[in-house]
Amino acid sequence: MDTNALKKFAQAARNLLIDQVTSKLDVVLAEGSAARREAPKAVKDLENAINKADKQQVIEQVAYTWFNRFTALRFMDAGGYTQVRTVSPADGATRPELLSEAMAGNLPDGAPTTIQSLLDGRTPSHDPQAEAYRLLLVHTCNQWHGPMPFLFEQIDDYTELLMPEDLLSQTSILAELRKVMTEDACQDVEIIGWLYQFYISEKKDQVFAGLKKNQKITAENIPAATQLFTPHWIVRYLVENSLGRLWLLNHPHSGLAAKMDYYIAPEEPETDFLKITKPEDIRICDPAAGSGHMLTYAFDLLYAIYEEEGYDATEIPALILTHNLTGVEIDDRAGALAAFALAMKAAAKLGRRRFLRMEAKPDICVLQNVAFTDAEMQDVVAVVGKDLFTDELRETLGQFEQAKNFGSLIVPKLRDPAETLRVVEARDFGGDLLLKDVQARVVAVLRMAEALSPKYHVVVANPPYMGGKGMNDVLSEKLKAEYSNSKYDLFAAFIERCQALNMGKAFSALVTMESWMFISRYEKFRTSFFDRSAIQSMVHMPYLGKGGTSMGINFGTTAFVAEKARKENYPGNYQCIRYYECDERGVPNSFPLENERTSVTTTADFESLPGTPVVYWCSGQVKALFTETPAVSEFSETREGLTTGSNDLFLREWQEVSFGKAGIGITSTEEASATDYRWFPYVKGGEYRRWSGNFEHFVNWYDDGQELRKFADPKTGRIRSHNYNGDYGFRGGFTWSGMSSGSFSVRHVPEGFMFDAKGPMGFPTGTSTTADLTAFLNSRVADHLLKMLAPTMDFKLGHVLNLPLVSDLGPSVSQTADQLADWVKSDWDAYETSWDFTTLPLLSEDHRGETLAESYATLRAHWQSMTDEMQRLEEENNRIFIDAYGLQDELTPEVPIEEITLTCNPAYRYGVKGSEDDRETRLRADTMAEFLSYAVGCMFGRYSLDAPGLILANQGERLEDYLARIPEPRFMPDEDNVIPVLDGDWFADDITERFRLFLRVTFGEAHFRENLRYIEDSLGKDTRKYFTKDFYADHVKRYKKRPIYWMVSSPKGTFNALIYMHRYRGDTVSVLLNDYLREFITKLEGERARLEKLADDPTATQGQKTKALKDVAKVAKQIDELNEWERDVIFPLAQQKIEIDLDDGVKANYPKFGTALKKIAGLS
Q1: Are 133 and 99 in contact (CB under 8 A)?
Q2: Is residue 818 over pLDDT 70?
Q3: Residue 229: partners with Cβ closer than 8 Å, 6 or more residues away
């Protein structure tokens, strides 16, 4: 089956049908339309439907109704279930056989006589064949109403009026339908499910786009947001290991196992199981039925069971539909398709004639919203009788007002709705239309309640996936109230609900997201689940950071079968299937699949681990470590960090603010409160980095954080911030990133930091030290054990505290940790993005050579030596802990080079996808770019060649402040805080010329040309081009979209100049305007005059004149651009003398200058 072709067709068909139905609707509703004369009731019904819902919803409904009917009719044509092909031509013909037969005079029984009169010309029509065919289609659909009322409702309403016009051309929807629904493709009814999923896929995209804008998923959009068509092999696994297992437990000599390729036999013989005597006893439910994929395969397996038991083949389909299968669904479309799919299963077994005579119908309960007013409750009493009108019934009747929203999560209060339903259905209210209406609604509720009663032997489902962020408020509140342990996602609530739908010892078979297996917030859910259930088998498809979706399999899911019974020692079978262990169709290369994670594990094994994670691959040695070894919590305490309530208000990248307002090296909250500092270092997780680093943020903790502590929601008055670090603020310890895409990484944090919820901290207690703890936590052992507690890489406090810690391994362990932390900290500080940066390593005397090339070579050798030695020490640290924990059979000490977390290590910095030569080329280019960036810092006075660290880094500082600290600088900073960045030698002090001077000062005149050539070879372009094209983008990236040098740039980039935000003053724009922009415009006008003169010069060649004329036009456009920009943007800004406050941060200050500054994508 070509699912790509199906997807393309279904999406195009939806758009085509919506367009055609929309056009038809406009015609029908026009004043004086033929429809208003000929079918006034249908038009009135259409108008009422639009008023009740809305126009677009009605259009969508009619479009999908015809889509469902067309696909169903084509499937039946291809399968031979139609006596005359309805939407398909006979062999060798082009028009539908139904129309061809009518044109030959062979009308279906009961067809309108108008058809014949249209075809023989007695009834005038502009397109008689098309009009006759539409009437034939309506008649055929109405004929199918008897056998399949769920899909083919009687068409006597506006649905017929809005039937698409073009059904016979070679480009019609039916022609395209036949191309993808080939007879081969229609061999399996699952094609209907695929088409439906693809049909609603664009709607699903729209819903998820709305989620990004914080638009909750409303009840009517839940189907589009949550329906997924389950891959067939997963369906087989689930059904075979629930229904098939149940049958085999009761009939151990059955031959059914030979037909079940995905069946996993129990590890040991079983005696305690749910007893059944005959096939009719088995009740199976899919509470999220979708288009019926689970149920159709259950039909196949049940048929084999009945057949094996010797039942008459002509009776089996009706028995299955009558006794065995129930589907519950909230989406009318999907429910109709599920019923159709089961009907087609029956038709395939019976043949057309017997199928048409079969009275049994698929039991698909499509939930509907049903409500009763208080006044109507008196009528309900009359309908059901006082003896049956109990409190339970009253509550049940009120439970389905939001049935489309809550779906199968509704738990009916009425314990035996079947008996009440039988009595109420039997009552006859004659001509009392009011009571008949109430009776019909009571019956509807009771039928839904009956479907949702706990009576099933097997519940099988691919439940909806929807996190709390997407839930509408009503749904969210229901989950909080009734599913407190599983409220975080619909799929988890459905796991709970499926358990409840089953009778004791019955099976739940589900495919869900994997998160419930590991994430800490599901700990109570796991405890509750294992108190009531035992997993029989599981096929886990983990998310590995790649692999995505293959034929509908979302890696990051798990399929499992659980028995409703507490069996802590039951040996469940667990398998892991990764994306690379499947073929191109997403089917496992073999089954069962044997790999290093295949295991037989019990509930007791999971319960022996903190948090009860479902880590089936956990070894016996690891389990023993958790039960027999003291935990980290005995040597350390941890604290969750601060939540500010508004990071935009209270957090800054450190470079954004005046450094003089930052309290560095504070040792306690009391000391911080006694100062006037506003900003303090702040730990906030960050990228994968071990031992030290990721010191990037400041938090506003002025006056002991009073502003932050009092920050409240303006609507509710509730304080939005929490977890203020307390006495742990500014204490030294260790931190880690709460979320990680790689190995666990812990960093030493010296005194002086507050810390964030995304950067929780640990503090050694007793005689333990930070070095002892970071040595263990950065080891292969800790990473291995943490992946048992948090396989999804979401590392919570409890995970770290629960790790087993073998202590007293000797002083070398802490010494190694200290050395590694020192190296990583020195590497972190070697870049200007650190507030402890002093000078560029390239300029250090330790690495200085005669030329820039020699200096880089010496520095690169030093970096490599440090990387190699760090790798050696990390591996030695791993070896010590692997031996101490007895994990030599599970772990090796080697550390890949890309995990040596030094920025100077190109394998870590860039990853190892490319070649080593590529990485070396990038490292040299980036090092030269960093040299240029440092040079710009010296041009603005942020840094100096004559003193370490920051010089001008406070708001409004001037050159005078610089000279007060460095009276005789080797390289003089710019005086007016404006540095032109232009494509040409227009100013003697532009950025390119200043850099050349800087290069001469730092590396001398003798090798200037050689050094400049080395830089430009490294960058792959000359320095002027780098400054004009790449520098600012690099700068914005380097400072994570919070740049300190701001690029003033004209609309087309003719004029550019940098200003340093810490030196910005109210007259800076005026300086730029008067001393640079206007002067540049004057120079351009002089250049234009020179070019015009050259174009008229009789001594110039024709080529020179032609080029001069082109350049005149170019310069004229540039002058126009700049004059307009000056008039509309720069001059008004200069007059405003805008003030900025560095405390407000780049995000607030940068936009004040509007289009004068180069746009930064993602700044807002």
Answers
A1: yes
A2: yes
A3: 190, 193, 194, 196, 197, 290, 291, 293, 552
